[in-house]
Specification:
There is one protein chain. The protein has 6 helices and 16 strands. By secondary structure, it is an alpha/beta fold. The strands form 4 sheets. Strands 5-4-3-2-1-14 form a 6-stranded mixed beta sheet. Helix 1 packs parallel to helix 3. The protein is globular. The structure holds acetamide. The site of acetamide has 7 residues, from loops.
Length: 266
């Protein structure tokens, strides 16, 4: 069994110091809860609703060189995995990224490939397939927020062997929590969406962080408005059974030879 933790928190726009304090406090709170795998929301070091590139630049960090990644690395030392959304800088470019640290090491960085709303004003889109990582004998896929609206992402993660999708989010549309139930059913996979709460400028974030199982059951869901640490025990091996009926396997029964339209770019 694996103990998943999802931290539903409220980052602040244009206040790096407050965000670093929030991250530190959140990790401290999570440390005593027996969590093996912790997920934090998207852009926890920066907030979301930027007004200028100066705000983006002020909060962005290069993985391995900033305070947020040092905190994540430290938290992961005791045999734990953490996945968190950050505003990332690489030279003169910024990315909306999810970083993964395990056992005191940086494992991977996923750069969001589907940018939502104004994000393309600030961020370059990632150019790599979302990753699947191994930890403690289980396999975890990573995607970020608006990737939920593209079922191809969860499908690729499932095809690449993920049993659990770790999903940092800053959700504003009212559909994702329901859609993740479907992502679970159609891929027979767990999903863990760590969403944020609160308002920033014109945006209101929807909370309701949740964990779903391969049958689409919602194992836990946080409130719409409160900071919470959801702690849920799961058995990732249940996601290895892809049979939606005795006769039907949701991956093997696909007909990719009829799906060419999915990979046409027009
Ligand atoms: C989103 O992708 N942050 C809505």
């Amino acid at each position: 069994m694996v103990t998943l933790g999802l931290a539903q928190i409220r980052p602040h726009i244009a206040s790096v110091r407050e965000n670093l304090e929030l991250i530190e406090n959140t990790l401290e709170q999570a440390a005593g809860r027996g969590i093996d795998v912790l997920v934090l929301p998207e852009l926890v070091n920066s907030g979301y609703a930027f007004k200028s590139e100066e705000e983006v630049a002020a909060s962005a960090e290069t993985v391995g060189q900033g305070t947020a990644s040092a905190l994540f690395k430290d938290w992961s030392r005791l045999g734990r995995l953490i996945v968190a959304g950050i505003c990332e800088r690489i030279e003169d470019r910024f990315y909306n990224s999810a970083v993964a640290f395990a056992k005191g090491e940086h494992i991977t960085t996923y750069r969001k490939i589907h940018l939502f709303g104004d994000e393309a004003r600030w961020f370059a889109a990632g150019e790599s397939e979302p990753p699947v990582i191994e930890f403690g004998g289980n396999r975890y896929g990573i995607m970020v927020c608006f990737d939920w609206a593209f079922p191809e992402v969860a499908r690729i993660l499932a095809l690449n062997g993920a049993q659990v999708i770790l999903h940092p989010a800053n959700l504003v549309l009212p559909y994702c929590q329901t859609a993740m139930v479907t992502r679970s059913i159609e891929n027979r996979i767990f999903t863990a969406t760590a969403n944020r709460i609160g308002n920033e400028r014109e945006l209101e974030f929807s909370g309701m962080s949740q964990v779903t199982d391969p049958r689409g059951e919602i194992l836990a869901r946080a409130s719409e408005t409160d900071a919470e640490l959801l702690v849920v025990e799961i058995d990732p091996r249940l996601a290895d059974d892809k049979n939606i009926t005795q006769a039907n396997d949701v991956l093997k029964d696909r007909r990719p030879e009829l799906y060419h339209r999915l990979t046409d770019s027009t």
